[in-house]
Amino acid sequence: MKTYYVYILKCFDNSYYTGVTSNLSKRFFDHNSGKHQDSYTYSRRPLKLVYYCEFTNVNLAIETEKQIKKWSRAKKEALIRGDYDALPNLAKKKF
Asked: How far apart are CA 41 and CA 45, in angstroms?
């Protein structure tokens, strides 16, 4: 069974990049080496892998990546810290 990874990189400019891959070590190497000059991470190196989770269903991995990309910085940082109790509160809109 193939494994897929959703990952978050912390960029040199302190922004976050979220992606999905089936080969995490190769993908991280590609990001950090600047293999793709037109990518978001190219001008924001060096990068640090700060979070990843594993999936056996590619569709669920892609869905999770898309969901995380929409999250606020605070919510991504709670996920990175493993503060899962904070995630529902960070999802609520403030009026």
From this structure: 6
For residue 82 the two structure tokens come to 């493993």
Residue 56 binned pLDDT confidence (cut-offs 50, 70, 90): very high
Distances (CA, A) of 70 to 1, 32, 64, 66: 29, 23, 10, 7
Residue 6 vs residues 40, 73, 92: alpha-carbon distances, Å: 17, 17, 23
Q: For 4-52, what is each residue's pLDDT tens digit?
A: 999 999 999 999 999 999 999 999 999 999 999 999 999 999 999 999 9
Q: Is 80 within 8 Å of 8 (Cβ atoms)?
A: yes
Helix, strand, coil shares, percent, the chain, to 5: 45, 20, 35
Q: Quick one: tokens of 71?
A: 């999250």
Does pLDDT of 92 surpass 70? no
